[in-house]
Specification:
The structure holds two protein chains of two kinds. By secondary structure, chain A is mainly β. Chain A contains no helices and 39 strands. Chain B is elongated, with a radius of gyration of 15 Å. The chains are: A mainly beta, B mainly beta.
Chain lengths: 467, 103
């Protein structure tokens, strides 16, 4: 007998989330059916992870999942998400009704089953050191910004909805603007300012297409340097109150800058032209508005997409060979002398998408890099400048356009994950020192209160009422 | 420790005089003990046990607590203090059937 839930109107209500149900009557007399489910976003839900899996991974019945916003009579597909047999993630609004359509890919003899799983993304607090990754906005507008653990692999802390989506962005790292972010919004050519709680506090328009500006924090002045691709590229400083200061037009340059950063006294801008390889790291004197000699020559077959200027004015440059899929980071001092070169190794292919750099909380001793060593996997790595030691690595699962990037599998690495081609930032602040104690035990500090002001309970027993 | 379920009888809820507690207990630190009457209306603090990790003694603490129902609470409050209890013996004797009528 054919399944009943073969339309939006007859969709099966999944009830409370999390959900794990299996439908076994997908096939009837050699015909597979497209089936429908629905749910209402519960209180507290910001993002839902959904997955419909047939059990097959390379052939046979493997349906495509599409999420919709209700009602059943006029459903609206969400964010162009259409994913075959793999997990998806999408933002939701509490109380709204959503539908999941599982579109058959073929008919066969059957039998076939469909296992449907839903989960609610966590809403844990943002902690110092966490990894912020917003979406690049290429697939559609409306993908949330993700916060990821810097301590545990494949772990989402929470998502924030309605955050700018684009390729440019950075975060301020000292008071009074600690944690304030400037993010490009690709959809309307603005740069939006968010406070440390991800509440928008301002917005600026360039007046011309920003065309994927480079936005880099100037550690010395605690504001951002912005290079937009205005044709010629223009450099300005963006203040936390969403106002611009200064304007330099780099006449004679092509319209696109890739790697870009400014030193801590705002006297020199460093940049690499376009995405083509073998470009030097150039310098521009912002005080006298003239080009200076190059900081460093280009590297054959390598392009530069990101630059940092550390608080000691050393310059961190990432080089990528998109053909050989290798890359390295080179740190220069302000004279152009090489401080260190850190290779990612030939066994690691840096790109499923472009590698990016971010400041660390241990600046200038370390910095962070985001790599994509294989399809579906992102590495967030913290390296020491002095000796290139890898001090921290977090492996995360990549979702592009809300869809699991990896191959179809019975065991996806995670049901929720990060967007890929976009900036990333480390939540600034002084990290809480790790708890030190015997394995499985914790050292309890006298009178310690947790962040909610609740005392740690004492070991206690009480008998029942006697006799 | 759950209260034992007893069949209803005429002696249920008689007034009991609790006189001592003895335990088979190992630990470190001090086990702070308190007797509570029903709904914690009355309480009586006992002299704490000083615990050791190994002992041949099952210590006793006297009390003078007279109520219809009572429970014993034990706890530690210091860092690294712990306890392991295998047996608790409450010494008690029914002394009265009821409070004066009208109580």
């Amino acid at each position: 007998m054919p399944p009943v839930n073969i339309s939006f109107a007859t969709a099966v209500d999944l009830g409370s989330i999390p959900v794990d149900v299996t439908q076994n009557n997908i096939n009837d007399a050699g015909v597979n059916y497209t089936v429908y489910y629905k749910f209402t976003a519960p209180v507290g839900a910001q993002v839902i992870g959904a997955w419909g899996f047939s059990g097959n991974t390379s052939s046979g019945y493997r349906p495509n999942i599409k999420p919709y916003l209700g009602p059943a009579g006029a459903p609206t597909q969400l964010l162009n998400i259409d994913c075959q047999n793999k997990p998806i993630q999408f933002p939701v609004d509490v109380g709204q009704e959503y539908f999941l359509e599982f579109v058959k890919n073929l008919d066969d003899a059957g039998p076939n089953s469909l296992r449907v799983r839903l989960e609610i993304a966590p809403n844990d607090a943002v902690e110092v050191g966490n990894i912020i990754v917003n979406d690049d906005g290429l697939k559609a507008q409306g993908f949330p910004c993700g916060i990821f653990s810097h301590l545990i692999n494949h772990t989402v802390r929470r998502f924030f909805k309605n955050i700018a989506e684009g390729e440019g962005g950075d975060i301020l790292r000292t008071a009074p603007s600690l944690g304030v972010m400037a993010l490009e919004n690709h959809h309307d050519d603005t740069i939006r300012i968010y406070d440390a709680n991800f509440v928008q506090t301002g917005s600026v328009s360039a007046g011309v297409s920003l065309n994927r500006p480079r936005i880099r924090t100037v550690l010395g002045t605690n504001r951002w340097a912005v290079a937009d691709q205005g044709g010629p590229p223009r450099i300005r400083f963006l203040n936390p109150d969403a106002t611009f200061s200064g304007l330099w037009s780099l006449t004679g340059l092509p319209s696109t800058l890739m790697g870009f950063a400014v030193n801590n006294i705002e006297s020199i801008a460093y940049f690499a032209r376009s995405a083509f390889s073998n470009h030097a790291i150039e310098r521009y004197d912002l005080t006298n508005s003239i080009f200076l000699s190059d900081l460093a020559p280009g590297v054959v077959d390598h392009s530069t997409l990101d630059i940092l200027v550390l608080s000691n004015n050393n310059i961190v440059v990432i080089y990528e060979d998109s053909i050989a899929n290798t890359g390295f980071v080179r740190i220069y001092d302000p004279t152009g002398a090489t401080v260190n070169t850190i290779s990612f190794g030939t066994t690691v292919s840096p790109f499923d998408s472009s590698a990016r750099l971010a400041y660390s909380n241990d600046d200038p001793n370390t910095f962070w890099v985001m790599l994509h060593p294989s399809v579906g996997i992102t590495h967030f790595r913290e390296y020491k400048v002095a000796d290139g030691v890898l001090v921290n690595q977090i492996v995360s699962t990549a979702y592009t356009g809300g869809m699991y990037d990896g191959a179809e599998t019975v065991t996806p690495t995670a049901r929720l994950g990060n967007s890929t081609s976009c900036p990333f930032m480390i939540v600034p602040g002084t990290p809480v020192p790790p708890i030190v104690g015997p394995s499985g035990l914790f050292v309890i500090t006298p009178n310690k209160r947790n962040d909610n002001g609740v005392a740690i309970p004492t070991p206690i027993f009480r008998t029942g009422l006697m006799p | 420790m759950p209260a034992s379920s007893a069949a209803l009888s005429s002696s249920q809820d008689n007034i009991v005089h609790y006189t001592a507690v003895r335990m088979r207990i190992l630990g470190s630190g001090s086990l702070l003990m308190t007797m509570f009457s029903q709904d914690d209306i009355f309480s009586s603090v006992l002299v704490p046990f000083t615990m050791t990790a190994a002992t041949n003694i099952r210590p006793n603490r006297l009390m003078n607590f007279q109520h219809q129902r009572a429970c014993l609470e034990g706890k530690t409050t210091g860092i690294n203090e712990w306890f392991k209890i295998n047996k608790i013996v409450i010494y008690a004797k029914e002394v009265f059937v009821e409070y004066p009528s009208g109580t």
